[in-house]
Amino acid sequence: MDKDTIIEVKDLRVNIAMPEGTLTAVRGVNFEIGKGETLGLVGESGCGKSLTSKAILGINDRKCTSLGEIIFDDIDLGRVNLLELNPRGKEIRNIRGKQISMIFQEPMVAFSPMYTIGNQINEATMLHITKDKKKSKEISLAMMKKVGIANAEKRYNQYPHEFSGGMLQRALIAMALVCNPRLLIADEPTTALDVTIQAQILELMRDLQKDMGMSILFITHDLGTVAKMCDRVAVMYLGKIVESAPVREIYKRPMHPYTQGLMGSVHKIGSVKEERLFSIEGTVPLALNLPPGCGFYERCTKRIEGVCNYYNPELVDVGEDHKIACFAACEKCLENAKLAKEEELKKQAEEERLAAENPKRKKTGGKR
Ligand SMILES: Nc1ncnc2c1ncn2[C@@H]1O[C@H](COP(=O)(O)OP(=O)(O)OP(=O)(O)O)[C@@H](O)[C@H]1O
Ligand code: SF4
Ligand SMILES: [Mg+2]
To answer: Helices 165-177 and 117-128 sit at what angle, rounded to 10 degrees?
Structure first.
């Protein structure tokens, strides 16, 4: 990870303990975000976007286990693997809300109905900025004004149910930004809003980013929003990144059949027309007992029989900071997959040979 990178996610897997077995909903995700950069994370419902973002903050529920590495450039500790920190320890509490904060998908869920909006924004300010109540209230009010909440003094004492959807979203942004985070995770921040409010909120986020110089992980279904908000984009399918590139590059040259499907009717960056474009046949399968091969195989119009249902493509750099995991789009993917498969078969054969030579060893291995 170089000095301009704020976070690097390496081979992240999220396992969920289910009655039917372990569901690996995030299956080896890799990406990094530069300082001041906005990375868009795009993909259909259920592909693992929220699990990935919550793994960064260590806030997935108890039946989820995160594996791999999430290296964050902490202001005090330097490079630190967030997955190795005690989830209730001082270090992670010094990161959550202060250095990394999140705008959640559901504003109504993010706020408690029992406390006033001001009270809830102020909680973060008091925890991370100042214990002085008067100063803390001033900072919280200033942020409410900054995100465009009119009559902020009056609004400060109101409860979430007294706010409209757009106002509540602004309050959520105020709560996420009040401590001046270095990385903001925005999970579908405008999905619940009508188009006019959406545009206002996005503009507001862009302005605040310019002011504060923060990095953003921007999660969305909407490729029109990606074009407006992001520097780079990572396309996710069935718990894996299948393509990533700078925004202009991916609009000019989408290579993965899934990305091409998503791009279907987006004609150019900045197009006024914004549509949801998921017109790909079929749905994302559940990541439980998946067959070998590419996860997109069943839905792919370019699939190669005997290859795509046998090997698993991994991301390969094809130049211009463009990475792709697809056999039809990249020969190198196939070479790499063949090598990985050969290695796997060799390892398996070696284990079988050792087990045949020494049956006791096999028994011990089996117990593990
Ligand atoms: N706590 C959980 N228990 C069981 N399954 C879960 C849990 N959380 C997520 N999943 C499953 O993991 C997969 C990925 O979920 P995730 O919420 O990350 O999707 P997403 O990409 O954010 O979708 P959306 O766009 O609808 O928000 C889905 O199949 C979902 O049903
Ligand atoms: S690897 Fe094969 S199945 Fe997967 S997206 Fe590429 S062509 Fe389609
Ligand atoms: Mg989600």
So the answer is: 10
CA dihedral 56→237→10→83, nearest 10 degrees, is: 30
Ligand 1 residue neighbourhood (C-beta within 6 Å): 16, 25, 43, 45-51, 61, 105
pLDDT digits (tens, 9 = 90+) for 145-198: 988 899 999 999 999 999 988 889 899 999 999 998 999 999 998 876 778 778
pTM > 0.85: yes or no:
yes
Sorted by sequence, the CB contacts under 8 Å of residue 4 that are 6+ apart come out as 34, 35
Alpha carbons 58 and 172: distance in angstroms, whole number: 20
pLDDT of 360 reads 67
Q: In what order do the strands lie in the sheet with 316-317?
A: 100-103, 183-187, 215-220, 38-42, 232-237, 240-246, 323-324, 316-317
Q: How far apart are CA 274 and CA 224, in angstroms?
A: 5
Q: What is the pLDDT of residues 304-347, one digit of tens each?
A: 999 999 999 999 999 989 999 999 999 999 999 889 888 888 99
Atom of ligand 2 nearest to the CA of 307: 2
Q: 244 with 29: CB under 8 angstroms?
A: no
* Nearest atom (ligand 1) to Cα of 239: 14
Structure-token pair, residue 296 = 């997109």
Q: What ligand is nearest to the CA atom of residue 239?
A: 1
The Å distance, Cα 334 to ligand 3 centre, comes to 31
Alpha-carbon distance of 187 to 49, in angstroms, equals 8
- Taking CA atoms, 101 is separated from 95, 172, 180, in Å, by 8, 11, 9
